[in-house]
Amino acid sequence: MKRRxxxxxxxxxxxxxxxxxxxxxxxxxSQLYNKVVIEKAILKKQLDDLSRNKLAxxxxxxxxxxxxxxxxxxN
Length: 75
Description:
Layout: H1 2-20, H2 27-51, H3 54-62
């Protein structure tokens, strides 16, 4: 799954590189470029979500850190 996402991100980057030269020439290329940028960002977010340690995040949420106030430093 992770490797497939990395391959898709690389393909999107190749598409972006090819479209970058034609962005200023036509509005269709510009729209397609923007679409590919968004798709690449979605894929990167999915990859980031896969690499997170969800168990550790749940533990951190269960035991929140005590927030210190500025008045605590002057006691």
